[in-house]
Each structure stands twice: as C-alpha cells, then as structure tokens.
C-alpha cells in the first residue's frame, strides 16, 4: 500500500507511522529521517539542504521532493510505503501526484489522524523531559514521575522543553492549519482521505487505522 499520514502535532503520527509500517510490512519514510540520512551521508541533496538550514532558511520544496523521490525508488519501497511529514503542503502534494503518475503508481489512502486542539496542547505542553537523557519522557497527567520534577529512571531533573511550551505548540498548530491541513481537502477530491480518531490507547488507534485501511482496500 502507498499511504500518506497526516495530522496535527501531538496526534501521535510518529508512533502510529512506525507501528502501521511494521504491520503492513512497508517502509516508514519520514521527512526528518530523509534530511538526517542525506546530511549524514553528505549526498548532494544533503549538502544543499544543510546549506539552507545552516542559514536559518526553510529547505525548498524541490529539495524535499527530490529526497522523497530518491527514497521511494529504493527496492524496499517497491511494494509500497508510508509517508510521514511529506507532503507538507498542497504544492508538495501536487508534485507527489505528478511523480507517482510518471511511475504509473497512485496513492491508496491518506490517513488523517484527528485530535481535539486543546487535547493536543495538553498532550505536548504536559511533557517533561529528563536533562540527563532525552529518551526519558514523562507527562504531568498521563505518566507522571513518582517524585515531581525527578526522573524515575536516573534521578535527573525533569524540565519543559522550549518546543513543548504551550505558546510554541499553538504556533505549530497554526502552521499546520495554514500550510498542511489544506492537503486534506486536496486529497478528499480524490476520495483518498480516511479519518481516524487519534484519541485513546495507542493499540486502539492502530487497530482503528488498520481496520479503516482494510475497508478502503475492500471497497477498491
């Protein structure tokens, strides 16, 4: 299957992308991983992307699209893929359509993870990260540490990261609404959008998504 996964910050895209790709036996292709891989390998695209990033500028769509094209052409993606973080806007969605059409392929579904905005803010702004190890993450409501402000694992100080602050989260949500959300309407005109309720236990959300994809596949 060829799938695009969309949803606001805090909807659990990264978690669900990893789980769904594993269940469906297709590669999980994320924009962040593409950038890191190309930069670490010092590919021409990686050097180009890094030059923009180092200057504090956004990486142009054409560079992101070229990276995605290269990744989708790898042997492990022949049977499908799950795109996470790409396309990020309508122009990228149009470019993806053009690219797939050129290769005689098409998307099977666009999974839209939906979560109430205030819940998203609560999810992210409630995170507390260990200063000693950023992999140790707690939540003031959902998974609080045994002792407030102290990591259960190593005893390090827990703090609120700057990009997890409520102000930053609301800014990220506004960017999502203005830049990325329009691709949902774009794909609705193609009958590809499958809306998934992203609230609840992780396993339940994964099961909902898999069931919806099966229905979509049966209908086609």
TrEMBL record:
Compartments where located: Cytoplasm
Region described as NMP: spans on this chain: 30-59
UniProt binding sites for AMP: 31, 36, 57-59, 85-88, 92, 161, 172
SUPFAM superfamilies listed in its UniProt record: Microbial and mitochondrial ADK, insert 'zinc finger' domain, P-loop containing nucleoside triphosphate hydrolases
Keyword Kinase: yes
UniProt domain Guanylate kinase-like: residue ranges: 1-214
Catalytic activity: AMP + ATP = 2 ADP
Pathway: Purine metabolism; AMP biosynthesis via salvage pathway; AMP from ADP: step 1/1
Key word Magnesium present: no
Role summary: Catalyzes the reversible transfer of the terminal phosphate group between ATP and AMP. Plays an important role in cellular energy homeostasis and in adenine nucleotide metabolism.
UniProt similarity note: Belongs to the adenylate kinase family.
Domain remarks: Consists of three domains, a large central CORE domain and two small peripheral domains, NMPbind and LID, which undergo movements during catalysis. The LID domain closes over the site of phosphoryl transfer upon ATP binding. Assembling and dissambling the active center during each catalytic cycle provides an effective means to prevent ATP hydrolysis.
Protein name (record): Adenylate kinase
């Amino acid at each position: 299957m060829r799938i695009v996964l969309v949803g606001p910050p805090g909807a659990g895209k990264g978690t669900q992308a990893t789980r769904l790709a594993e269940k469906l036996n297709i590669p999980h292709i994320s924009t962040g991983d593409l950038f890191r891989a190309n930069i670490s390998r010092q590919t021409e695209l990686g050097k180009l992307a890094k030059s923009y990033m180092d200057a504090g500028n956004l990486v142009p769509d054409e560079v992101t699209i070229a990276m995605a094209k290269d990744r989708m052409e790898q042997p492990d993606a022949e049977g499908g893929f799950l795109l996470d973080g790409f396309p990020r806007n309508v122009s990228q969605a149009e470019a993806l359509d053009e690219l797939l059409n050129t290769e005689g392929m098409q998307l099977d579904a666009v999974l839209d993870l939906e979560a109430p905005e205030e819940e998203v803010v609560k999810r992210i702004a409630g995170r507390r990260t260990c200063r000693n190890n950023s992999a140790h993450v707690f939540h003031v409501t959902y998974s609080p540490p045994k002792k407030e402000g102290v990591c259960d694992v190593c005893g390090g100080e827990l703090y609120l990261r700057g990009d997890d602050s409520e102000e930053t989260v609301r800014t990220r949500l506004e960017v999502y609404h203005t830049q990325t959300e329009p691709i949902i309407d774009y794909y609705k005109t193609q009958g590809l959008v499958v809306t998934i309720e992203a609230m609840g236990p992780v396993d339940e959300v994964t099961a909902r998504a898999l069931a919806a994809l099966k229905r979509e596949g049966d209908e086609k």
